[in-house]
């Protein structure tokens, strides 16, 4: 009996069978735009070899006006077919199946040629769209159908028509973006005409034996979004029009409710998909914040869907399904939903990769080949940089000893996991510990490594991390002043708190102190109430008309920084807005452009601006210092003074802007070279 009987059961589609219920959801990686299609093929080929049932590619534009940005990859000429053929051949050689997503961005396209049902500018693009006339609409339909036919010629097993997340087809469905008065607007029958016509024409173009997935927005999370009746009506029509499978879309990109960030509870939206079960007779896929085989299995066993889509988990681990099937689920590198190396990269114009797996999208360039010259390798420090180095070096065949002065592996990750909404870090630390053990690393916990301890090793890697920066505020030595480390380890904190420093850790500490935290992750009902998510059967788009209902903050927190700029401006591109919104809802006061003058019993005294004007006291029982970090290099410096050759990585190398992404990447790349 397999561990995950529902997840690993095949899905018979009549003309073809998927080997399990796992779909690798569509992600834009940026690989196609490099023009190196060998690299694209390697990326998907590894995922196919890892056993996933069906892969969906990143969105491919059906024409130039529909591209997410000018130059976005697509399949709009016959000459593109050969490139795509390299991908499909590689996937098939590795035993997989792959569908191409056809993505028309409509008004979300970041370019001057964008088109839409009506000239309603989107809040996430500066370009007002052109309203399509009848001929323009026909052209879009024809281009999408032609792209599907080309995908079939290129060897894909199917296509996914992107009808959700607020893209082109979705824009026709709701009055928020469709103000037309012709046969494509007005009544719901008219508004859903385009998606139905698209699916009908796609089916006509590809014939019966080709997978056509329609991604349908089940909860728009925007004002004037679809009602549940409309969702069900559309799903039935899409089935009639010839779709093979319906996939779930959650929230428009312009929605002000997080849908995939780490603070969103696991499987937070499977209840929406479940409402559609039984309403159509084709299989239904659910998605969003499903990242372990057990969660996916539970979702299927409870009848929430016929299949589960996971996207980012396949960046974190290409072998997700193979490991689950082989009883090695604890070896699956977990996606912690941080967005730091995937979506944040995409939105900064960088190639996608993964914080946990730096090989993602770098398959051809970063390889962990077995070593021909095994060495004795010492790694000092068991934070993310040190653990990653130790694992990769040991897997390559080196004899690795990992020294850690604390009595547990994890380093700063053990602090991060204490923050409400960052519970996924528990799984990450567990995974690292599992892999350190499986790789055969000799671990010495509670061991402060000295230069003598390291004398007999061929290679010494210093990953001793960081220590908190001392902001040197007069009066900070009193009992009312704590470091973020004390706070996250559970030191008592008063009711009024001033937080010095508003970087990632200052924000985390403000969040931690504003919640009445217990050890249980936030319940889904609390999370929905906090953000104002309701049932689309009650409220259009699933938005509670009463708005968000945040809990009462546990403390009165003031967050401060010296820079005269908006607090949180430098947080992650796709998650910074969430942190800022959460703290606002928790009534955290924010002050920028301050100088720290003094700490005394009544709190923290600050002045303002370069001239240190308008001094004021911030009343606080506790002052928490989150003023950044300095490299902890004392061991590295001692060894270098002795003339030893050492590798210094992670925070010990450069503390500024340190995060686990850089630490893990640096560790992996060093270990690949040892
Ligand atoms: P940080 O991001 O460098 O922020 C340090 C804060 O301290 C800044 O607000 C800085 O602002 C202030 N500061 C710097 N020198 C100071 C001084 N001498 N006196 C008083 N204030 C001073 O560092 P962090 O918050 O410790 O975070 C460390 C790293 O962990 C970050 O780079 C981040 O990547 C990572 N992290 C990320 C997240 C996330 O959500 N993605 C969460 C936690 C941690 P002013 O100089 O303007 O005062
Ligand atoms: Fe998941 Fe973070 Fe990796 Fe993105 S970078 S795939 S969110 S772990």
Rg, Å, rounded = 26 Å
Distance between the termini: 42 Å
CATH superfamily of the largest domain: Aldolase class I
CATH class of the largest domain: Alpha Beta
- Per DSSP E runs of 2 or more residues, the count of β-strands stands at 27
- Helix count? 21
Beta fraction: 15-25%
| Range of helix content | 25-40%
CATH architecture of the largest domain: Alpha-Beta Barrel
Bound molecules: NADP nicotinamide-adenine-dinucleotide phosphate, iron/sulfur cluster
Could you say what the CATH topology of the largest domain is called?
Answer: TIM Barrel
Count of discrete structural domains: 3
Secondary structure layout:
Elements: E1 11-12, E2 17-18, E3 22-24, H1 37-49, E4 54-60, H2 81-93, E5 98-102, E6 115-116, E7 130-131, H3 134-153, E8 158-163, H4 168-173, H5 188-191, H6 193-206, E9 211-219, H7 228-241, E10 245-250, H8 270-276, E11 284-286, H9 293-301, E12 307-310, H10 313-316, H11 320-325, H12 343-346, E13 376-380, H13 384-395, E14 399-404, H14 413-416, H15 424-438, E15 442-445, E16 459-462, E17 466-468, E18 481-483, H16 484-488, E19 496-500, H17 504-514, H18 524-531, E20 556-560, H19 576-585, E21 589-591, E22 594-600, E23 603-608, E24 613-619, E25 622-625, E26 629-631, H20 634-641, E27 647-648, H21 660-673
Parallel strand pairs: 3-4, 3-12, 4-5, 5-8, 6-7, 8-9, 9-10, 10-11, 11-12, 13-14, 13-16, 14-15, 16-27, 18-25, 19-20, 19-25, 20-21
Antiparallel strand pairs: 1-2, 17-26, 22-23, 23-24
The protein binds NADP nicotinamide-adenine-dinucleotide phosphate and iron/sulfur cluster (SF4).
Residues 469, 471, 500-506, 508, 561-563, 571-572, 626-629, 657-659 line the site of NADP nicotinamide-adenine-dinucleotide phosphate.
């Amino acid at each position: 009996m397999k561990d995950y009987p529902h997840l690993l059961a095949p899905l018979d589609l009549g003309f073809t069978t998927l080997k399990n219920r796992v779909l690798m959801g569509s992600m834009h990686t940026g690989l196609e735009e490099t023009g190196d299609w060998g690299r694209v093929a390697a990326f998907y080929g590894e995922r196919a070899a890892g056993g996933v049932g069906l892969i969906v590619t990143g969105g491919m534009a059906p024409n130039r006006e529909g591209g997410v940005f000018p130059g976005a990859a697509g399949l709009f000429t016959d000459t593109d077919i050969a490139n795509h053929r390299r991908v499909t051949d590689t996937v098939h050689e590795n035993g997989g199946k792959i569908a191409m997503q056809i993505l028309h961005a409509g008004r979300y396209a970041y370019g001057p040629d964008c088109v839409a049902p009506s000239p309603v500018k989107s809040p996430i693009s500066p370009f007002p769209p052109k309203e399509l006339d009848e001929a323009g609409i026909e052209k879009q339909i024809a281009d999408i159908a032609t792209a599907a036919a080309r995908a079939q010629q290129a060897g894909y097993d199917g296509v996914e028509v992107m009808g959700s997340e607020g893209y082109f087809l979705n824009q026709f469905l709701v009055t928020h973006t469709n103000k037309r008065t012709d046969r494509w607007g007005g009544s719901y029958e008219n508004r859903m005409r385009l998606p139905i016509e698209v699916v009908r024409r796609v089916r006509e173009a590809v014939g019966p034996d080709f997978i056509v997935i329609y991604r349908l927005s089940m909860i728009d999370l925007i004002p004037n979004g679809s009602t549940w009746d409309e969702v069900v009506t559309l799903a039935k029509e899409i089935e009639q029009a010839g779709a093979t499978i319906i996939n779930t879309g959650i929230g428009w990109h312009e929605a002000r409710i997080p849908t995939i960030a780490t603070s969103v509870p696991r499987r937070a939206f499977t209840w929406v998909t479940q409402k559609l079960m039984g309403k159509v007779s084709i299989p239904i896929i659910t998605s969003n914040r499903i990242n372990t085989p057990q969660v996916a299995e539970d979702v299927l066993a409870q009848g929430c869907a016929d299949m589960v889509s996971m996207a980012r988990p396949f960046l974190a681990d290409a072998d997700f399904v193979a490991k689950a099937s082989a009883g090695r689920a604890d070896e699956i590198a977990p996606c912690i939903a941080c967005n730091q190396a995937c979506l944040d990269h995409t939105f900064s114009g960088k190639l996608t990769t993964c914080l946990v797996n730096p090989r993602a999208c770098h398959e051809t360039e970063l390889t962990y080949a077995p070593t021909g010259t095994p060495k004795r390798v010492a790694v000092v420090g068991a934070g993310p940089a040190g653990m990653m180095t130790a694992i990769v070096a040991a897997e390559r065949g080196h004899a690795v000893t990992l020294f850690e002065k604390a009595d547990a592996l994890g380093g700063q990750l053990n602090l991060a996991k204490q923050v409400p909404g960052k519970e996924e870090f528990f799984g990450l630390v567990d995974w690292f510990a599992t892999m350190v053990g499986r790789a055969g690393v000799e671990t010495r916990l509670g061991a402060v490594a000295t230069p003598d301890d390291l004398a007999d090793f061929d290679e010494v890697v210093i990953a001793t991390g960081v220590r908190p920066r001392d902001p040197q505020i007069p009066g900070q030595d009193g009992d009312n002043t704590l470091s973020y480390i004390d706070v996250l380890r559970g030191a008592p904190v008063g009711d009024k708190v001033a937080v010095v420093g508003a970087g990632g850790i200052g924000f985390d500490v403000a969040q931690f102190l504003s919640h009445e935290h217990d050890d249980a992750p936030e319940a889904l009902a609390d999370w929905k109430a906090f953000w104002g998510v309701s049932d689309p059967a009650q409220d259009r788009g699933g938005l509670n008309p009463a708005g968000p209902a945040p809990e009462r903050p546990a403390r009165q927190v003031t967050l401060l920084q010296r820079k005269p700029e908006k607090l949180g401006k430098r947080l992650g591109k796709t998650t910074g807005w969430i942190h800022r919104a959460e703290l606002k809802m928790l009534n955290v006061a924010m002050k920028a452009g301050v100088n720290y003058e003094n700490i005394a019993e009544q709190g923290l005294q600050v002045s303002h601006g370069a001239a240190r004007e308008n001094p004021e006291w911030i009343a606080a029982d506790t002052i928490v210092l989150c003023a950044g970090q300095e490299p902890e290099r004392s061991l590295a410096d001692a060894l270098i003074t002795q003339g030893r050759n050492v590798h210094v990585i992670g925070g010990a190398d450069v503390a500024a802007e340190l995060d686990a992404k850089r630490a893990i990447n640096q560790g992996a790349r060093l270990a690949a070279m040892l």
